[in-house]
Amino acid sequence: MRNISKAFGDKIANNKVDLDIYRGEILSLLGENGSGKTTLMNMLSGIYFPDEGEIYIDGKPVMISSPKDAFDHGIGMIHQHFKLVNVFSAAENIVLGMETDPDGNPIPKGKINIEEASKRIREICELYGFDVDPDQKVYDMSVSQKQTVEIVKVLYRGADILILDEPTAVLTPQETEKLFAVLRNMKADGKTVVIITHKLHEVEAISDKVAVLRKGEFIGQLITKDTNAQEMTNMMVGREVKLNIDRPEPKDVTPRIVVKNLTVKSDDGIVKLDDVSFTANKGEVLGIAGISGCGQKELLESIAGLQQIDGGEILFIEDDGKETNLVGIDPVEIDRMGVSLAFVPEDRLGMGLVGDMDLADNMMLRSYRSGKGSFTDRKSPRELAEKIVDELEVVTPGIDTPVRRLSGGNIQKVLVGREIALNPTVLMTAYAVRGLDINASYMIYDLVNKQKERGVAVIFVGEDLDVLLELSDRILVLCGGKVSGIVDGRTAEKNEVGLLMTKLGGGEIG
Amino acid sequence: MFSLVSFIPRAIVQSIPLLLGCTGETLNEKVGSLNLGIPGVMYVGAISGVIGSFLYENSGAQFNGVVGVLIPLISCLVGSLLMGLIFCLLTVTLRANQNVTGLAMATFGVGFGNFFGGSIMKLTGSDVPSIALTATSGAFKTGFPASMKGGAIGQVLFSYGFMTYVAIAIALIAHFILKKTRTGLELRAVGENPATADAAGINITKYKYFSICIGCMIAGLGGLFYVMDYASGVWSNDAFGDRGWLAIALVIFSIWRPNVAVLESILFGGLLILYLYIPTGTNFATKELYKMIPYIVTIVVLIFISVKNKKDSQPPEALGLPYFREDR
C-alpha cells in the first residue's frame, strides 16, 4: 500500500489532513487529547465516513464505508475501548462477523467450526509470540489479554495495516514491553502498524516515523530517530513547553494525617491493606506508587471515609494540634474537614461525575448542601464551571453540555478542577493524569504544586514513575497491600522504586 | 385421585403457549430487545387466526382440514409479524424506549383482540359471549393415530395435536441456531455488545428486524395454539389471561435458553393448573395463592441468578439499550 491521503471539510475534527503510511513501518500518530487522531483513524477503519477527501491504497482510490470494507482492504483497528463480547470465548470473538475464512473460502451461515478456527489462532499466536487460549471466555481475561485477543482478531482477518488506539494506556510497563516486542515481530513480517499515542517515550521506543496532529490539522511528519522529545512536544502543542516538573521546596512541614496500622479487607475477606502506617504532611506531596490494585484505591477511600476499616486508625491533625480519628466518621463530616478525593477511575466517569449532567450541575454535586433553605444555589456552581473551563482550557461547546459528550481528557480536567476548587486541606488524587496529553498533564502538576504551596497535604497516586519521582517530596510504595518502603522523591532512583513495587522489604535490595 | 398420567398431558397442553411465547421473547432478547409487547403480540396472533378461521368456516365452502389449518396459521403469522414490525420500527429505526413501546403494544394487543373478538361475536349473534370454531379446532388437534394414544405412555407422549410437537421442535431449533451456528453467534453478539458486532461488520438493524419479527411470529403461534388447541376453538375475550407475561417470566427462568424452556414450560404449566388439584371446598383465597406459584418461582430464580452472578447465565448485556453507531 502507498499513499493514503484524505481531507475533511466542515467538520473540525479533521481539517484537510494528508497522511502517508508506508508498508512495513511503524508510524506513531501523535497529538493532544481531542486533536482528531482517533477520528482520523476511525475513518480509515470504516467507523466514520469522511465528509470530504479520498483514501488511496496502493495508489488506487478506495471507498471505506463500513468496518467490513476496511477489513477487505486489509485494515484492522484495535480500539481504546475493546470491541469484544464478554460471554464469548476468544475464538468466538475472533471469528465473529467473518464471511470468509482466512483463505478466502466462504463460511456457510450454518454450523460454525470453532475447532478449526482455534487451530489457526494458535498458529498466529506462535508466529508472532502471542499468548492466547482460544477457549477462554473474555470475562475471565485481564485487560492485556483482551488487547491481545483484539490484535489476533485483526491478524486473523489477514490485516496488513494495524491501527492501535492508545494501546498502552491500560497496560503495565511489563505488558507494554511485551506488546512492543509483538509489534516489532509484525513489522519484521512486513505489516504496517499505526499507533495512536501521546506518550513521547513510546514514540521513541517503537516507531520509525511520527506524524503530528494538532487541533484536527496535520502538522508534520518526522523520522523518529532524527527528532527529540522537545521538538515533538512543541509541534504537538504549538508552542514551547517546558518538560520539567517544578518541585517547590516544602514549607512548614507538619503532620496533617497520620495513618497507623491500617488494615482493610474486601467483602470476600481478601486483605487489601495490611498494617499500613504513614504520615502525610501539610505542604508536601506524598506520592504513592504501586502496581494497580495494590491497595491504592482502598487507602484513599479509607481516608475519605468510604471504606469499611478492619483495624488501625487514621488521625487528622488540625492546625491547632487537635487530633481527630477519622475511622468511623461519616464521609460528609470528613469532607467538611477539607479532605477531598479526586479519584479518576479507568473509565473516568465511574466515580465523581455524572455523565448525563452538564458541567455546572456536576459542580453542584459538591456544593448542593450549601444552598439556603431547601433551595440549591445554582449561581456559584455555574461561575465555578466557567472558571474551570476557562483556566484549564476545557474544550466544550458550553457549560450546559453533558459531561459525557466531552473527550476523556476534558472530563478529567473538570473532575480534578472541581476538587481543587474546594480549597481542601488534604487533596487526594488518583491517576489524575490518566490518559491526559502532555499539556493538560503539566497543567494538573502545576495545580498540585499550587495546592502544596498553600499548605495542603497532597496525596498523589500515580502510574508514571518518572512523574512521581519529579513531583513528589516523598514516595510511599505499596506492594500487595503492604508498605514496602517510603523513599525521598529527590534522591530515589527509578529502579529502586520499581523493585519496591514488586518486592516486599526493600532493604535487602540495597 | 391425583393421577400423574392425567396431570402431565394437562400440564403440557398448558405449557405450549408459554413455550412459544418464551421462544419468541428469547429471540427478541437475544438481540438486545426487551419486548414487553409479547402478551399483546400473542393476543393479536390469536385473534388474527380466529378471524381467518371464522371467515373460512362461514364462507360456505366445504371445510377442508389442510386449508382450515393453513388459513388461520397464515393470518396468525401475518398479524404477529405486523406487530413485530411496529415494534422494530419504533425501537430499532426510531430508537424509541423499548419498555414504553412494549407496554403500549401489550395494552394495544389485548384491546385489539377483544375488539375484534367482540365484533365477531356480534356477527354470529349468539347468546354466549364466545366464538366457537369447532371444525378448525378439530383440524388443529390432529396428531398421532388414535391407536398410539392408548396406555400411559401413549397418553403422556402421543396424545397431543401437531402444534405441540411443532412448538417443541421450534424451541430446540432456536436453541441450535443460537448456540451452534454462525447466524446465532452474530445474533447473540448484537444483543451482547452491538458496538462490537457493528465493528465486526454485522448489520445490526437487519439482525434486529429479522430476529424480533421471527420471534413475534413464534409468539403469535402461542396465542393461536391457545385458542385452537387448548381452548378447543373457543374464543372469549380475556380468556388468554396473563400467559404472555408468564412467557416473559419463563425467559428469565430458562436463563435465555429455549431448550431449557421446553422442560420448564411444562413445569410452569403444571404450576399453573395445580390449583385445580387442591381438594374441593378449600377456601377461594387458597386457590389464588396457588396461582401465584409460577410468579414466585420467577422471582426466586431472579434472586438466585443475581446472587450467583455466573457470567454465562446473565441477561444479554445490551438488553433494553438502543444502539446508534455514532453515539458515545
Question: Your description of this structure?
Answer:
The complex is a heterodimer of chains A (510) and B (328). Chain A has 16 helices and 18 strands. By secondary structure, chain A is an alpha/beta fold. Among the domains of chain A are: 26-237, P-loop containing nucleotide triphosphate hydrolases (Rossmann fold); 245-338 and 465-510, Rossmann fold, CATH 3.40.50. The longest helix of chain A is centred in the middle third of the chain and has 16 residues, at 173-188. The termini of chain B are far apart. Chain B is built from 13 helices and 2 strands. With 328 residues, chain B is an all-alpha fold. Chain B has a two-stranded antiparallel ribbon with strand order 1-2. In chain B, 71% of the residues lie in helices and 1% in strands. Chain B has a single domain, classed as ABC transporter involved in vitamin B12 uptake, BtuC (Orthogonal Bundle). Chain B has helices spanning 4-30, 38-57, 65-93, 98-124, 134-140, 151-158, 162-180, 182-192, 194-199, 204-230, 243-253, 258-273, 284-308; strands spanning 131-132, 234-235.
Major sheet characteristics of chain B: 2 strands, antiparallel
What name is given to the CATH topology of chain B?
A: ABC transporter involved in vitamin B12 uptake, BtuC
Mean pLDDT across the residues of chain A is 79
N-C termini distance of chain B: 63 Å
Note the gap between the termini of chain A: 53 Å
CATH 2nd-level architecture of chain B: Orthogonal Bundle
CATH superfamily of the domain at 26-237 in chain A: P-loop containing nucleotide triphosphate hydrolases
Write the layout of secondary structure elements.
The complex is a heterodimer of chains A (510) and B (328).
Chain A: E1 26-30, H1 37-44, E2 55-57, E3 60-62, H2 67-72, E4 75-78, H3 90-95, H4 114-128, H5 143-156, E5 161-165, H6 173-188, E6 192-197, H7 200-206, E7 209-214, E8 217-223, H8 229-237, E9 255-265, E10 271-281, E11 284-289, H9 296-304, E12 311-317, E13 323-325, H10 331-336, E14 339-343, H11 359-367, H12 379-391, H13 408-421, E15 426-430, H14 438-453, E16 457-461, H15 465-471, E17 474-479, E18 482-488, H16 494-502
Chain B: H1 4-30, H2 38-57, H3 65-93, H4 98-124, E1 131-132, H5 134-140, H6 151-158, H7 162-180, H8 182-192, H9 194-199, H10 204-230, E2 234-235, H11 243-253, H12 258-273, H13 284-308
Antiparallel strand pairs in B: 1-2
Helix pairs in contact in B: 1-6, 1-7, 1-10, 1-11, 1-12, 2-3, 2-4, 2-10, 2-11, 3-4, 3-5, 3-10, 5-10, 7-8, 7-10, 7-12, 11-12, 11-13, 12-13
